[in-house]
Amino acid sequence: RVVIQLPIDGDIIKSINKDNDIFKQLDELIPPESISLQLFHNGHSSYYINRNFAISDFSLEKEGSVWILVGGSFSSKIKYNKIMLKSSIPLKNVHIGWKNFSL
Fold first, then answer.
1. Which residue among 6, 13, 51, 93 is the one 20 to 30 A from 24 at the CA level?
2. Whole-prediction pTM value?
3. CA angle centred on 36, ends 73 and 63, rounded to 5°
């Protein structure tokens, strides 16, 4: 899974009304399939478009409180070394990370 951390001072978080359903607002601000990614390893690639959200602080005041989760579980046998992220919405000052792991 690839995670995209949204900055709390960014346009997306600033436009959220904390008194309403935050997940619904995120779904409207970041529509399905508005973000896609491709992971690469030695000429091979995997493509993902499904996304979800994770919120650790519903006050939206702490950095790292809102994340976009893209993709599912990646193969633990492949160590990806490059990512290509495409977005139809502006994503400024975000942090992107992923980890190859196995269960």
1. 93
2. 0.81
3. 80
